[in-house]
Amino acid sequence: MKEKKQLDKMEKIISLSKRRGFVFQGSEIYGGMGGTYSYGPLGVELKNNIKQLWWKKFVQDRTNIVGIDGPILLHPKLWVVSGHAEGFGDAMVDCKECKKRFRADHLVEDAIGKDLEGKIEEMTKIIKEEKIKCPNCGKVNWTDVKEFNMMFKTQMNGVEGDIFLRPETAGAIFIEFKNVMDSTRQKLPFGIAQIGKAFRNEIVAGNFIFRLREFEQMEIEYLIRPQENWEPIFDNWLNLQEEFAMELGAKKEDLRRLEHPREKLSHYSKKTIDIEYKFPFGFKELYGLAHRGDFDLTQHTEFSNEKLEYFDQETGERFIPHIIEPTFGVERSLLLALLSAYTEEEVEGEIRVVLKFPNKLAPIKIAFLPLSKKDELTEPTKKLFDKFKEKFICQYDETQSIGKRYRRQDEVGTPYCVTFDFDSLGDNSVTVRDRDTMKQERVKIEDLEIYLNEKFHSNE
Ligand code: ATP
Asked: Is the CB of 247 under 6 A from ligand 1?
């Protein structure tokens, strides 16, 4: 029952997202493209707010993390050196009856409770021996398990070799390590951050914007000395990742940490933890944190013309730093923000839908509403809108009844509505309505800026 309620909530969010312009299915008029979405007028604001919050917290507010914006198209060698060209894929198996394709490791794990990721032949054997039924049609008629590379391949004029759309943003950071170090004179420990698109040809995309083929990541490569006691630094990053999720609205109890067992770790990783969030379809990875050792910089040093070393001016030593890599998905953050904010309340026998976003995330901060469409009210309201739009993202709306306009703003999460009515002409005051409490306060127009500034700052 509880599960069904959660899934209903997801349906409601998908429908609200389309109706109010947060998220649209990609290429919808041509029948849609799985795993791609467009962000509508409110979705793009929300997404930008999430990215800005992240950039401020992890780059602008810190002295030892700097940002870059690297290209999506990177040299073909990079993907060979990083291991992605050979090994960035999933083991898949097809049902010969209904032609549906599934992650083989997931089928096996559900059937025998053992994770055999990477063990292709064993998985083929077990799927056949255990007579695992197709989750779609219930038949037992499987192909052998096969590896599929998830990178999108393309070509580039004048470059030999396969060009791939990057499947993660980290690659560009590694290869710019020296440029960043030389141009910023950062001392260890320091980080390089990037926000950008990543592309993965996921076999099974789905759960709305949870698993996409085109998405965005916010990543940091945090460089430390090899001999440094890395565990407290790692733990601190875990805390910061969870803190960020909570700033987006997540409750602490809806987050949990899942450590990758030794046998599933890449050979170079000392520790990898997924931070999972309780989505309506279960606890799933929200963000990841990995200790990558010196693998990436060592590989690029070996196969490029550049020594990606750090020079310690105090000791005169040169060495390759170790890396701790926190990764955040933008769309999973956005889904979390929508899920955490979505609230239904009964007010006077009717259901009020409210997106209770933290103020910083709200796509529209203040709505300016004249009580009626009469010029004597619309003109001064527009003037207020013009003044406040310089400081806040505002909206002006004069259509339909005031009650309906309040509900519309609630539904998209606007924290404050300012209404200019006939009394305003005489008392030079407006009504400010609070989204969450629905309380209305009369505020003098001359005090409105201070009043709203205080509201927004006290809620930071
Ligand atoms: P999953 O186990 O869910 O496939 P992953 O372990 O492959 O994820 P990473 O390679 O660690 O993911 O990517 C880092 C982050 O990028 C993830 O924590 C997630 O937030 C985001 N991410 C990864 N793949 C996708 C995707 N297909 N769609 C949307 N976001 C994604």
From this structure: no
